[in-house]
Every structure is written in structure tokens, then in C-alpha cells.
Amino acid sequence: MIKSLYFDNTAYEFAYELERLIRNFSLPHKLEFYTDKIPGGTDYAYYCADNGNLSVTVSDNGITYTETAHIADPSDYETELCRLLCRCMEKHGHAPLPWGILTGVRPVKYIRSIYETHDNAEDYIRNTLLVSDRKLKLANDVIRLQKPVLDTLGLKKISLYVSIPFCPSRCCYCSFVSASGEGALKLIDNYFELLLKELDIYADIVRRYSLKVDTVYIGGGTPTTLSASQLDRLIDKLGEFDIANIREFTAEAGRPDTITEDKLRALKNGGVRRISINPQSMNDNVLQAVGRRHTVKQVCEAFDTARKVGFECINSDIIAGLPAETEMSFEQSLKRLCDLSPKNITVHTLSLKRSSALFRQFGDDIGKGAENMTDTAYDMLTEKGYLPYYLYRQKNIADNLENVGYCKDGFESIYNICIMEDVQTILAAGCGASTKLYDGKNVSRVINYKYPYEYISRFELMNERKREIEDFFESKLTLA
Q1: Nearest 10 degrees: Cα torsion 458, 460, 464, 465
Q2: Spacing of C-alpha 131 from chain mean position
Q3: What is the average pLDDT across 242-262?
């Protein structure tokens, strides 16, 4: 396992991207950095870019390989060093990375830009970026399905995100900003009252700058951790944004063990038209292994309740690579989920976060078989009429893969496309929420405090940042 990275002075300029790339070949671990120093021993990578003479040397378990190239244009150094690294790692027995040298969260956005700026774009994507044919096809599928949505956007149209960062318990794979346990749940009431105040600030901004709310997304955590009466009050507050005619209104019901008929009726009566019921697996053994406090039977009951209340558009999440899940059991799990006929299915790949309890419990023995599982998901879901409409990647994702949202025709989530492609302003309320300000080309961010106790104790200080949002609408953006 590579433990040290060495750079000459020129190559060090590209250290960030080279580090991100090499981490895609192994589980997360600590790396030491050295500059202008010749490596010794083993288990290292050495990068050189001396007057266009590029080389990468990788030594692992006593075996050393070197790849070289001569590049005249310094603007191509980073790409070529990444390519040389991939060649060395493959000589060491690593499988080619399915996304090649791409390490970013939004590969579809980048690939779309390649089509817009390069002749022979697919050759460049395959042969220079080293993206596999299968992933290029997936990206092309997503680009094709997103185009009609992207064509409907405008700078005066915004989305509104509301964060409910509480869960009844923490799943062992989770590293998201969410609060669980008795102590954290005691914060809900105070948090909720301040959240309504933050929404008042946003409602004023929307009115003053004549913005139109296009979509609303209530996410988490688990929003149905709130009571039915709190959900009623939240929906009433959102009504101040003139949401009667918005195109999409989503709430994550998420955990089946938090779903009740009265909560779903509160959401439905308030105008929510799209909800998530997220089993993560349709295998009780897997649910128990990852700390989900519900059963497959409860998932099915939650679907029945949602349809009784009148929800047609339901999204369900499933995760590839969980402990206790085999390739065969994942396939069966996905079939059981398809039998429930959700309009959207999001297939996540397990993200191998050292901060999660899962990593501490299972160590290196997690994420196995994820690539075959996601391939199975693509084949099965497209055969059943689901279309891949958005995707994103996470740091340390198993097998260097991705998370993909699939939908039945006409049920793509506008919000999911906008947030993943960075093509719309999103005003975000609640802790851990990140407001995105889009000027038609670039995105800037205004970020709230990360944890509920910070959000509560530093609420007024946090809201001083809202001036940045007002400045954006006043001077940085000429609204169409």
C-alpha cells in the first residue's frame, strides 16, 4: 500500500489532484508528502516534471515501475502525470479505474463541457481521460435525459432546500451531518423555531428580488423525525414563498420507522408531491448489520401507507457494497424494491468513510462486489424502464464508482439535476445547509454552521452571512 508521495518542485503544483487520484486505488489511509527529496525504501509514488520530461515511479511491496512521457505544453502536465500514475498502478495489478483520471464529484458536468469544447470529444474522453466505455455510456444517458430540464431553467428561478438534520438512530455507514440519540433529539424544538426564523429571512429576500421558487426540497437527516404538527407548521411557513404553482415539492420521509399516516397526510395536504422512502436494502440481515431499525416488512407497509394517502411519486434508495450483502442478495434486494414500483430508485455505492462506525467495525472488508452490483442495477433498471437521470461521486467511494438516480419516464427530479449540475441558485436553510448562488456561469456558496448546537447557539452570527446573498442579487447577478 502506498504510504508516501514525493514530488519534484514542478510536479508539486499538481499534488492535490494526484493525491485524490491515487486514493481511488485503495481504501482511505494516511499519506505522507515530501517535496524536492529523492525517495527511499518502498511503498511510495514519485512524480517528476522536469522541463517537459514527465515521469511517475510507483514502488509497492518491493516492486517498482516507472512510466515516462515528454510533454511540450505545461498546461497538459497534470493530465499526463495522472495518466502515467494509472499505468503504473495497473502494472502493479490494480484494475483500471472506471472513471479514469476523473476524480471530481460531478463527472457528468465535466463531460458535458468536453462535448462543448473539444472536437472528437469521445476519443478524448476515452483515450486521454481514460473513462471506460460503460461509464461514458452512463454519462451520455444522463446528459440526454437532463437536457429538457436544463432548457427550462432561468436565473430568476431558484430552489429552496430545508435541512432537518435529525435521525432516530445513526446508521453505521453514515458520515453525513445528522444528529441522533436522546441528547441530540432534545434539540429539535429549539432548532425548529430558529429554522422558521431563517425561512422568514429567505422569504423576504425572495420577495424583494422578485425571485420565483421553482422547487422545494425538505431533506435530512430524516425530516419525518419531526411531529405531524411540526410538519404542518413547516409547510405553512413554506407557503409564504408562493409555492402553490412550483414545479416540484419533495420531502424525504426516509426511514420507514419514522413514517406514520398523519405525518404523510401533513405533507400531502401541504402540497408535497414527491417523497422518499429509503430502505437501503431489502434484506433484513443487511439492515440489522448496518444498524437500520426497521424491517423489510415496514418498508412495504410504508409504501402502502404512502399510496393510501395519495403519493404517486416515491423515490427509494438502495446501497451497493454494504456488509452482509452479496452480489446475489443485492440483486434479489433490488428485485424486491422494483416490485414496489417506486417512480425513482437511487442506487448509491457505499462510501468508505473512516469516520463512520462501519469502517471501524468492518475495516477493509467492506464495499466488496460493488462494481458488479452497480452494473447489475443499471442492466436491471433500464430493462424495467428506469432511466439514469443524475449521478454524482463521493470521496472514497467503493470501487471508484458513483451514485445514480434512476426514474420512470417523466419523473426525473428537477432539484436533483440542479444541485448536481450546479445550474440553479439554491437557498438553503438549516444546519449543514449550503446556499448556492448561480450567476449563469459560476457558483458561489454561503454555508451554515455544521451541527445543530452551533446553529442554535450562533444563529444571529450565522445570519450575518445572509448579507452575502443580498449582495449577490444586488450587484453580482443581472437577472434575466
Answers
A1: 50
A2: 20
A3: 91
β-bridge partners, 57:
46, 66
**Helices 327-339 and 370-383: angle between axes, nearest 10 degrees:** 30
3-state secondary structure (DSSP) of residue 225: helix
Cα gap 133→115, rounded to integer Å = 16
- Cα 297 from chain centre: 28
How many other C-beta atoms can be found within 10 angstroms of the C-beta atom of residue 2?
A: 19
Would you say 101 and 21 are in contact if contact means Cβ atoms under 8 Å apart?
Answer: yes
Give the span between the Cα atoms of 22 and 79, in whole angstroms.
14
**Cell numbers at residue 236, please?**
405553512
| Listed residue (370, 324, 325) closest to 348, CA to CA | 370
**How far, rounded to the nearest angstrom, does the alpha carbon of residue 149 sit from its chain's CA centroid?**
19
Query: What angle do the packed helices 15-23 and 77-91 form, to 10 degrees?
Result: 30
Rounded to whole angstroms, what are the CA distances from 149 to 154, 275, 371? 11, 20, 29
Strand partners, 160: 216, 427
Write down how long the chain is.
480
CA dist list (Å): 92 to 99, 165, 396: 19, 43, 20
User: Which range among 5-9, 106-110, 125-129, 358-362 shows the weakest confidence by mean pLDDT?
Assistant: 358-362
Query: Is residue 277's pLDDT more than 90?
Result: yes
Is the pTM higher than 0.85? The answer reads yes
Reply yes or no: is the peptide bond before residue 220 cis, omega within 30 of 0: no
Spatial distance between the Cα atoms of 116 and 284, rounded to a whole number of angstroms? 46
What are the backbone angles phi and psi of residue 358, rounded to the nearest 5°?
A: -60, -45
Cis before 239? omega within 30: no
* The dihedral formed by the CA atoms of 194, 200, 202 and 205, expressed in degrees to the nearest 10: -150
Which residue spans within 255-385 are E strands per DSSP?
Answer: 274-277, 313-320, 344-349
Phi, psi at residue 339, to the nearest 5°? -60, -25
What are the structural domains, with CATH classification, of the chain? 4-94 (3.30.160), 146-467 (3.80.30.20)
214-234 pLDDT tens trace? 999 999 888 999 999 999 999
